[in-house]
Structure formats: C-alpha cells, structure tokens
C-alpha cells in the first residue's frame, strides 16, 4: 500500500518557468490537499479538493493552480515560478474529517 | 479565519524527563486537534489527535489535553527518549470539507541523553 506519492522529490526551477507537482493516492480518499512548508514555519494550505471535479482555494493560493480529474490524482501547477515559491510542498489526503496522510514532499528551489 | 499559536518554539529536555507543548486556537468552531511529528527531511506523521467532545486522550507515553473554554490544547510526552527528538506541530480544523488543517509554527524538541 503506497499511500500518498509525490513526484518529483527535488526540483530547481528558473524564475518564470512552469512545472507540475504530481500527487497520487491509492487509499480511495475523497479529500486531497496541497500544503507548503517554509523554513521554521508550519504548513500552509494552498488548495484542497473534496472530490473529483471540485477544488477550492486555501490560505495561500496565489501563483498556483490545481485540478482533480480523478479520485486518485491531484496535481499542483506553478505557472510562472517566483523565488517566493521556494518551499517544501506536501500533498495529503483524508477520508472525510479523519487523519490526513502526507506524501514525502517535494523540495522546490526557484533561482 | 483560524489562527493557531504554538509554544515554545524550541524545547530541550533530558532523557527521561517530560515535555509539554502548548497551542492556542482562535476559532471556537474548530473541533479536531491533531498533533504531527516531523523528523528531519521526512513527512509529518500523526501521533495523536483529539476531538472537541473529549477533554483528554492518552496513548502510551503521549497524551493530549483540550480546554475548549480557554481554546487551548497541549501535548504531553513522558519519559522522553532520544528518538522523540523532532519537530512537533499542532493543528486545528473545523472538520468541514474534509480536514482543512491550520498548523502552528512548530516546536523543535531535543532530547539529550
């Protein structure tokens, strides 16, 4: 049972480049989330989804987009990378309001 | 919106001593309060959680207490061990739309042997 899987684990982007962070879960969870974690800080919610086809903004959505075409996948898109988006990104999933399971994270550096 | 404050930011204890981390929250509608442990370079992992209809919950050396009136909750670790060294995060959620968690800033716990 893989749980929540994120790819890539590390990435360096140049300012203005675009990329997609992939997230997939095999637990049939209806809820999925994207968080970012800056050094010395807690996690901040970027976007979340309550099911396939439904997404909504979290605390810090600017500069990001998401889609949820299937229950399993919840990719996060950065269109024009900026240094302020340098962070560690965690995808998570849960079944209703129960425990949220996190992926292993993607460390992104924008230079 | 919800705001979660966590104290202290760092905590050093001697092996075998107890450690207490405290969090306060602002949204009285929050009803789910998990604690996550994050080791260096790893993902956050749930260690214990509590819901608003319960005042205290214990799991071996770990316990969480909740005071709804004062809007604060605490993590208690007894008989600390070196492997307890990590960053601990508290969080709060209304339990709506799944589990949209608002996290505290974290506490770095160092257990000295």
Summary tags:
heterodimer, A: 111 residues, mainly beta, 11 strands, B: 113 residues, 6-stranded mixed beta sheet, 5-stranded antiparallel beta sheet, 54% strand, globular
Oligomer: heterodimer
Structural class by SSE content of chain B: mainly beta
Ranges of chain B with pLDDT <50 over ≥5 residues? none
Cα-to-Cα separation, first versus last residue of chain B: 41 Å
Summarize the structure in words.
The complex is a heterodimer of chains A (111) and B (113). Chain A is globular. In chain A, strands 2, 4, 5, 6, 9, 10 and 11 form a seven-stranded mixed β-sheet that branches. Chain A contains no helices and eleven strands. The mean pLDDT of chain A is 95. Chain A is mainly β and 111 residues long. With 113 residues, chain B is mostly beta strands. The termini of chain B are far apart. Chain B has strands at 4-7, 10-14, 19-25, 32-38, 45-51, 56-59, 62-67, 72-77, 86-92, 102-103, 107-112. In chain B, β7 and β8 (72-77) form a beta hairpin. Helices cover 0% and strands 54% of the residues of chain B. Chain B is built from no helices and eleven strands. The chains are: A mainly beta (111), B mainly beta (113). Chains A and B meet through β4 and β5 of A and β5 and β10 of B.
């Amino acid at each position: 049972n893989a749980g929540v899987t994120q790819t890539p684990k590390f990435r360096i982007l140049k300012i203005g480049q675009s990329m997609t962070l992939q997230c997939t879960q095999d637990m049939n969870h209806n809820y999925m989330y994207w968080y970012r974690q800056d050094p010395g800080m807690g996690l901040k919610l970027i976007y979340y989804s309550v099911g396939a086809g439904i997404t909504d903004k979290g605390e810090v959505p600017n500069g990001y987009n998401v889609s949820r075409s299937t229950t399993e996948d919840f990719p996060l898109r950065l269109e024009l990378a900026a240094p302020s988006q340098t962070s560690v990104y965690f995808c998570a999933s849960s079944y209703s309001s129960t425990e949220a399971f996190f992926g292993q994270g993607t460390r992104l550096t924008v230079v | 919106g919800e705001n979660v404050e966590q104290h202290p930011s760092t905590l050093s204890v001697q092996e075998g001593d107890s450690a207490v981390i405290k969090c306060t929250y602002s949204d009285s509608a929050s009803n789910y309060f998990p604690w996550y442990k994050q080791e260096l370079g790893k993902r956050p992992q749930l260690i214990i959680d509590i819901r608003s209809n319960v005042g205290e919950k214990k799991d071996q050396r770990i316990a969480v207490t909740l005071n709804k009136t004062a809007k604060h909750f605490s993590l208690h670790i007894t008989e600390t061990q070196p492997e307890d060294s990590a960053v601990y995060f508290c969080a709060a959620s209304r339990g709506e739309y799944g589990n949209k968690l608002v996290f505290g800033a974290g506490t770095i716990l160092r257990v000295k042997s």
